[in-house]
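Severity: low
Component: inverse-folding endpoint
Summary: output formatting inconsistent between runs
Steps to reproduce: submit the following structure tokens with default settings.
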């Protein structure tokens, strides 16, 4: 009887907290790490790449969508942006955009 109660409790906890769904959504911080190697770890580019630290969230989101749809032609950024969903673009823009 004790084992059945434990199984029931485990089933209730697993149904109440769908951990798998959370694991599928990368955090904005993790997503932003893909930007830092070219645009600088604090959004200040050390070289020829544009800095992101002074860009607004709306500008970043719009620009990423334009790269994704090839409205702005850029081999590297177009390929990167095509890998992001709308929700990921919005999360990235909020994470990187000027506060």
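Observed output (run 2 of 3):
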């Amino acid at each position: 009887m004790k084992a059945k109660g434990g199984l029931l409790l485990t089933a209730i906890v697993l149904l109440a907290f769908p951990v798998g769904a959370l694991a599928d959504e990368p955090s904005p911080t993790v997503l932003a790490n893909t930007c830092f190697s070219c645009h600088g770890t604090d959004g200040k580019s050390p070289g020829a790449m544009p800095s992101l630290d002074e860009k607004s969230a709306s500008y970043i989101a719009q620009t990423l969508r334009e790269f994704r749809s090839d409205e702005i032609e850029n081999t590297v950024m177009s390929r990167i942006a095509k890998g992001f969903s709308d929700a990921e673009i919005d999360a990235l823009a909020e994470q990187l955009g000027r506060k």
